[in-house]
Amino acid sequence: MKKIPKWSKIAIIGTLMGTCFGAGVYAQDVLQRVDAYLRSDFKVVVNGKDIKLESPPLIYNNTSYLPVKELSGYLGSIVNWTESTKTIYINQRVNPNQPTEGNQTNYTEMTLQFPYAQYMDYRGATYPMLINMADQTYYRIVDLQRMGIRTEGMRKAKEKYTGELYVSEAELKTAVGNESPTISYTNFDPLVITGEMDPTKLKVLKAFVDQYRYFEINKVVLSWTPIILDKMPAENTYSYLLTDSGHFFRSTITLNPITKTDGTFDYSIGSSSKEDIEIPKVNN
């Protein structure tokens, strides 16, 4: 990798914050050309710990400018960029009024009743979320954490069949105020898949789900209605929550990589298993 000289003079146009976002197209009247210097010899210490930034500090007019997205990660914040409004969102991961401690073991119990996946907008970005309509509206905790919302101190409910934790909409609003996630009207997909960005894998997974929406076994017509498909920690493994004739099931799907002649990868369904999660498990 080519080293950046200690005093690299550069010309930059527009904003001086290295955000890792695309520049987009700007009107001429908002552009300003300036001379600045990259200082790879500058050290950055966050909360007493030396950190190594991939993008070095930039010096302009005796003022230091740091890459906001990279630095925010060390400060426990999340940065989002909205191209349409040219807006950078820097979001704290916890509301100042939210309690930092709470009972983490005593959960109220609730069951899947009317679960559905929905894309939600939150502070400049859109996220997938599993929502369950039971005695009230519940949001799945792993989805809230993906948004950068910390859930310490919130009262939680544990879903009986999946064991996943949720917080109620009322509890979330108490913790984060009026900045709760809202329904997205710009992003819609009949199958919501979380954690996977590879377009080739997404295509194979969606084809598999579509194949088993309606099918026939021994002249019996069956239909699997998808709820949500989550990428699991194990590579190429996914957890698929669905209903079959009104009954809740969880299927584990794995993908097999296939090396193509040009060196790129394609994928096929390696295996799938289906578990009736509503049947109580018997301990031997």
Please tell me about this protein's structure.
The structure is a single chain. By secondary structure, the protein is mainly beta. Helix content is 12%, strand content 43%. The strands form 5 sheets. The chain has a 7-stranded mixed β-sheet with strand order 9-13-14-12-11-10-15. Strands 16, 17, 18, 19, 20 and 21 form a 6-stranded mixed β-sheet that branches.
Layout: helices, strands, pairs:
Layout: E1 8-13, E2 33-38, E3 44-46, E4 49-51, E5 58-60, E6 63-65, H1 68-74, E7 77-82, E8 87-92, E9 108-110, E10 114-122, E11 125-133, E12 137-140, H2 141-146, E13 157-159, E14 165-168, H3 169-176, E15 182-183, E16 193-194, H4 199-211, E17 214-217, E18 220-231, E19 237-244, E20 247-259, E21 265-276
Parallel strand pairs: 9-13, 16-18
Antiparallel strand pairs: 1-2, 2-5, 3-4, 5-6, 7-8, 10-11, 10-15, 11-12, 12-14, 13-14, 17-18, 18-19, 19-20, 20-21
Overall geometric form: globular
Beta-strand share of residues = 35-45%
Question: What is the string of helix and strand elements?
Answer: EEEEEEHEEEEEEHEEHEEHEEEEE
- Main sheet properties: 7 strands, mixed
Number of domains: 3
Beta strands, count: 21
The structure class reads mainly beta
Provide the spatial order of strands within the biggest beta sheet.
Answer: 9-13-14-12-11-10-15
How far the N terminus sits from the C terminus, by CA atoms, comes to 58 Å
Model regions low in confidence, pLDDT < 50 over at least 5 residues = 12-20, 94-103
- Rg result: 24 Å
Number of helices: 4
**Fraction of helical residues:** 10-25%
Average the pLDDT over all residues and give the rounded result. Answer: 79
InterPro entries: Cu_amine_oxidase-like_N, Mao_N_sf
Protein name: Copper amine oxidase-like N-terminal domain-containing protein
Pfam families: Cu_amine_oxidN1 (PF07833)
Domain Copper amine oxidase-like N-terminal: 45-90
